[in-house]
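Thread: Newbie trying to understand structure tokens

Hi all, I'm a second-year student working on a class project, and my supervisor (Dr. K.) asked me to get a predicted structure for one chain before our next meeting. I've only ever worked with sequences, so writing a 3D structure as a token string is new to me. If someone could post the tokens and maybe explain what I'm looking at, I'd be very grateful. Here's the chain:
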Amino acid sequence: MHTIIVLGAGMVGSTMAFDLSKNHQVTLTDISEERLQRLTDKNSNITYQVLDVCDRLQLQKTILPFDLVVCAVPGFLGYETVKNIIEAGKHVVDISFFPEDALQLDALAKANNVTAIVDCGVAPGMGNFILGRYNQLMEITDFECLVGGLPKIKKWPFAYKAPFSPVDVIEEYTRPARYVENGKLITRDALSDCEFVQFDEVGTLESFNSDGLRSIIFTMPHIRNMKEKTLRYPGHIEYIKVLKESGFFDTKPLHVKGVSISPLDFTSSILFNEWKLGETEPELTIMRISITGVNSKGDKEKIVYDLYDEYDPISQTSSMARTTGYTATAAANMFLNGLFESRGIFPPELIGHDENCFQFILQYLTERKMHYKKSTFIL
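---
Reply by user tm_fold:
Sure, no problem. This is what the structure looks like when written as tokens:
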């Protein structure tokens, strides 16, 4: 049994702590004492501690006794938090999905003899593990990740609910999307290249460009075509484009009757209740990873992994928390079991190449009723 400290007691952080506590001694921390108190009734096997990760010295002192740190802080705090964890000489699994380039911390991690597994959720995360594995088995030419978290009940007009802040969702709609086409890095507006895609479980969804490739742009530069697209119910994108083009996502303050307010802040406040996911509201995660290339026999082959996952009413755990959090706890157990011992910064594609690590992750998720269905096509 190992000792693990989880930073951040939000929806995903608490889910990870509960999962890890089945086999390890876990301490869950958060800046909000109220949030921690609400969780004590749900799991008495966990130690709870108030901690402000922005206090570098207190953070490093607190994590010192633990075998592993799992970081689930908000994205804007992620880079500095991971940096401070590494400087303290502690191994870390991170799902904060911070905007900065994690690979810039590689030299620091190696100097401190630290393993840091970053971007370890569902997407980015599990898709990267899959890509890393097949990069060992075939000469890949094309990679595509389609992914979305959706409510089961479609409510007009947006047919969307989010388990996190509308500001974070809106950033996905406004941040330019990077993808690779014919070996060249292309940048386009988010919400572009809308396409309809059919799924057995939910019918037709629409996909659009989003900036989700992250590390694989740099770690897999030999793949000539790579794209990540977000999935929504049909009609959602058109409503978002109307808001975007009308200025509702602008950050420059407007002056209305003597009051200064940012359109983005106003829009986020309006959408908070419209998009807020209820604590026990049924929702789903759907993902399709497609990898095309030439296999060891010289045949052109396409590998497709499909995931469909729903809210778990028994544990009252959202699908987004399950698919994101359990990928990270799988990686945490993989590391603690000694299956991966390299030092430095590792997005999942740099771990998935190892068959033992890849199979461990898949088996761990299968045990938690998350089934990645594999299909193979000879083209």
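A couple of things are worth pointing out once you decode it. The chain has twelve helices and 18 strands. The domain at 3-122+319-370 is CATH 3.40.50.720 (Rossmann fold). Feel free to ask follow-ups in this thread.
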